[in-house]
């Protein structure tokens, strides 16, 4: 491909921590590149987190390339403003070549090799492309939302900010993954009436036998386990994250305790009929399943402590302090419930419709091995479990970005050898 003013050896799509990490290693390798960001760098961290948001993993796991956490609270949990300060330092250190407010509209293979990239700020070409835009693009909101009364304010989890900004009345939180459980807690602690539709998300302890569970799992090498060695293999990518919190120094999120304190729990939200929400009678099953995961993780830690003869405080098994009635409630009359708002916390779907390459499966997920796709010159970074548990997080992105840039460099060198051979 001929060189033009709009041509780069590599174009990186996305200016979050993944894209900036790729830029770090590309700069280290001396490879010219451009990072395209549809908003501004690390935009999601600044605009799609609620006010009380904090990390759910300890600060020591913040290990972006060349920029590990250097604060005085490695076992604490950074709050939103502290996370942004950390990211601002990383942005300044990397000094990536970024074109912001450049939404990528189309990426297609170019005649003669490489890629043509069309954006809202012009057209570019590249020998290779790294997609670092993450996997959480389109908020999931069920079609039943269209039939809810206009008087009920609806928002997606990325739009929630704080209890004070919510309208009067009870708040229905739909979904109990990390965002749903933490938003429900945020509202509950503020004294708001919360109704929570509990899904199948697992949970884990914050602390167990004298240490943060994350510390134990790190010692057990869980965070180094590649996806192809996980018991679920690639199926783990579909798992919902365990709910736990780093709030106020870190603690468990125990939905049963919230229920005992007045939060109303229901099973999975299924439909809206005749002015009433309809729920599946699976609340007890979902709570028991989450507790089962909680206890199995702790049992794994027990086994590790025993095998290695580690001196640690005694452990135990979580026992439920509250259980739903045997005959579960499956309907909730909207008018009688006093619901004034709903927060949808049921996740996102990926959207790579702008990328024209034969690498996607039937669910729109790209085929790859450690981010390297079967299509020459196309890579992904920042997807959940791209290689390990930390692939989409501060803790593991450096390893993935470095591996992808090594592949980029190898492909670049192979092409140079090929061109030299043709012109010799």
TrEMBL record:
The entry's keywords: Oxidoreductase
Q: A GO molecular function for this record?
A: monooxygenase activity
NCBIfam families hit by this protein: MSMEG_0569_nitr
Q: What is this protein called?
A: Putative flavoprotein involved in K+ transport
